[in-house]
Amino acid sequence: MIRSPIAWLAAVWLAVAIHLDWHLGRPAHGHLSFGLPYHWVFGVVASVPVAWIAVTRWPERIGRAFALMLGLGVLLGHGLEPLGEVVLYRVGWQPFTNTA
């Protein structure tokens, strides 16, 4: 399952969705921020294709497959993406420490 390119593509999909959701929910005073109160609905809708992939590709291990893809997506979306901002844009550790 971890070697499956489809699982990795689903994880990247979730990472992009997590980052977009962060922009949707962040307070509107920031750059590329929208301050939407129900931004979490986007996250729920974005995770449906990943659940469908888990059900159709690995019907005997649905929970494990979804947990793996979700974990990788969160690691990429909340870990590597902010780390890339720290390294590439030299903004300090603000992407990790700013709660907004």
List keywords for this structure.
100 residues; mainly alpha; flat
Textual characterization of the structure:
By secondary structure, the chain is mostly helical. The protein is flat. The longest helix has 28 residues. The protein starts with a helix and ends with a helix. 71% of the residues lie in helices and 0% in strands.
List the helices and strands and how they pair.
Layout lengths: L4 H21 L14 H18 L4 H28 L4 H4 L3
Helix pairs in contact: 1-2, 1-3, 2-3
Radius of gyration in whole Å, from Cα? 15 Å
Number-wise, the strands total 0
Largest sheet: none
Mean pLDDT value: 87
Straight-line N-to-C gap: 35 Å
Q: Please state the oligomeric state of the protein chains shown.
A: single chain
As residue ranges, the low-confidence spans are none
* N-to-C series of helices and strands: HHHH
Summarize the structure.
With 100 residues, the protein is mostly helical.
